[in-house]
Amino acid sequence: MTGTLVLDPLIPLILLYGVAGLALLALILAVWRRLPGWWLRGLAGLALLAAIANPSIQQEDRDPLSDIVMMVVDESASQRIGDRPSQNAQAIANIEAEIARQPNTELRTVTLGDGEGDLGTTLMTALSGALAEEPQARIAGIILVTDGRLHDIERAPNLPAPMHTLLTGQPEDWDRRLVVENAPAFAILGEEVNLTLRIEDQGAAPDATSVPLSISIDGEAPITVPVPVGENIQLPVTLPHGGMNVLQFTIPEAEGELTNRNNAAVVQINGVRDRLRVLLVSGEPHPGERTWRNLLKSDSSVDLVHFTILRPPEKQDGVPVNELSLIAFPTRELFLEKIHDFDLIIFDRYRRRGILPSAYLDNIRDYVDQGGAVLISSGPEYGSAESIYRSPLGQILPGAPTARVFEEGFIPQITDLGARHPVTEGLDALSPNPDGEGPGWGRWFRLVDVLVPQDAMTVMSGLDERPLLTLNRVGEGRVALIASDHSWLWDRGYEGGGPQLELLRRLAHWMMKEPELEEESLWVEPTGQTMRIIRRTLSLDTGDVVVTHPDGTETTLRLEEVSPGRFETLWEAPEIGLYRLNDGEEDAVIALGPAAPREFEQTIAGGETLAPLVENTRGAIVPISAGDINIRTVREGRPAAGRGWIGITPRDAFRTADINITPLLPAWAFLLLASLLIVGAWLREGRR
């Protein structure tokens, strides 16, 4: 309990000042008149002022408050490598024991784990939040248990007490990491792009001149090449396909290095075609020819070469050749010399007329076998003796004509297989039927009857469920057959038309092997750390997906069918990093955030980032590997660290439990004293 003299005036202070002024004037007047009792008058006035001011003794009942030592423990990802978890536990036990020995001192422990995204170690954010919840006047010290690799030093708060850092790690720690310095977001197919990589060693690394670097694209078998350590490497890459290409770079884990979490890097490059080069060969003029041409020319990404055979060799009309204004069909140049320059060859109602010799058609077959694509849009000629099927191309075409041609109206239908195939999946939804049954597109009026081999895929059917659109893979290439020449009716809007442009786009992309149109594929659509895992298949069921985490652990997930041929599931990944997925048939690789998170950019413990803050508070950075430390109390402003010890500053904070105010004297006592002084002054002056 402590006592303090306070004033509790009976009147407002402004009036009290006025009364004091009047008393002072009266005293001055008495002195000027040389009254012998002036000093008694002055004391009497002072007694009256004291009675009005009401001086009191204020007594407080104080409860002492304990000092608080704040300990922030870093348990982020970089603190879970090597023996750092045990070092954390050792330091915590040491601090708890030392604080328990300090009188009237409490320990507040704040644990920092991994945050969302790739923010790294937000140590100062955690410290600021902890300090904001405690009275600053009670903070006696701050202790950080960390590897010193924080990423928010700019958010450091004002420190009310000495701060110390207990540093994890060992003096002999070393690590090797793979860094992608530069990588483009997209690249043109067929053109080389350069990636810049570097392999760097940190800490007490052993001497090494080169290490093997494994390069894998889309989870395929890797290629391994030796690369130097500590130098930027220019790596030329040519993308194998359009769409997203996932390039994974890996270096092996060396004996003794801290972690392999930064030994891999993933680069995702979107492969785009400069232009889709299409060769359209029309066998004869017909109403759908211009539709094909307009559809292809309307797409700015298509580079179209179109030839129409207007004058076949057997046509004899007596017109001299030098008077014809027709361009000669450059068969040798197109089908021998430059055939591999084209991404897609379309034969539109082409019939054999001796223009393309069998050797050229053999070359087209080889072109497909080596990765090319051929689309046949057939009319009545496909079922005739002049059919292109009755040529070397017949060995690769997905439909053998029976010589029957049906001239009846029918609405094209998507087959059960077509409902699962990406070329026709959901195509009917683009032309909904107001009646609610079947697709809402218009009829076609011609169908060439074909027999489909077992390995081909019929995705659309026509009259009496006969094949209309069939697809097949041949060697490295792909072929497609439309058993009708009436698709142009959709483009003209007959009976409401239909999605001919979308069908042609999907066909072209499937034949160009675009990943989004593959019928058997596994991929991931990430949103933050949430994965939407998607499996597309022509099968009626699919196996479980095994997800391999960045640390090597595995999780098995079951996918549910959401639409024909499409299976999905949502899964929340526990951390950012590189994940591998496999369902026994298909593989996928996905990087949530960088493959090597920010936490693993610098893995060797170091206190250089925290040093300015620690020095400003006269604290210390102490390696845990040096052994336990002692905690002492020091006065504020004095050095707070020494050999084997760190200091905290006692704050002597308290909480006021009660306040009692007692008048120094009762008011009547002051009045009595003033009266006696006035009487004394009167008696002294009366003797004069």
What's the topology here?
Elements: E1 2-7, H1 13-32, H2 38-53, E2 55-64, E3 67-74, H3 84-101, E4 105-112, H4 123-132, E5 139-146, E6 163-167, E7 174-182, E8 186-188, E9 193-203, E10 210-217, E11 223-228, E12 232-237, E13 243-250, E14 264-272, E15 276-282, H5 289-297, E16 302-308, H6 331-337, E17 344-348, H7 358-369, E18 373-377, E19 400-406, E20 413-414, H8 416-420, E21 447-451, E22 457-461, E23 467-474, E24 477-482, H9 488-491, H10 500-511, E25 521-527, E26 530-536, E27 545-548, E28 554-557, E29 560-563, E30 566-572, E31 577-582, E32 587-592, H11 611-616, E33 621-623, E34 630-633, E35 641-642, E36 645-648, E37 654-663, H12 667-686
Parallel strand pairs: 3-4, 3-5, 5-6, 6-33, 8-14, 15-16, 15-17, 17-18, 18-24, 34-36
Antiparallel strand pairs: 1-2, 2-37, 7-9, 9-12, 10-11, 10-13, 13-14, 19-21, 20-22, 22-23, 23-24, 25-26, 26-30, 27-28, 27-31, 29-30, 31-32, 35-36
Uncertain ranges = none
Helix content: 10-25%
- Largest sheet: number of strands, sense, barrel closure: 8 strands, mixed
Overall geometry? elongated
Structural account:
With 688 residues, the protein is of the alpha/beta class. Helix content is 20%, strand content 33%. It contains twelve helices and 37 strands. The strands form nine sheets. Strands 16-15-17-18-24-23-22-20 form an eight-stranded mixed β-sheet. Strands 4-3-5-6-33 form a five-stranded parallel β-sheet, with helices on both faces. Strand 27 (545-548) and strand 28 form a beta hairpin. It is elongated and about 155 Å long. It starts with a strand and ends with a helix.
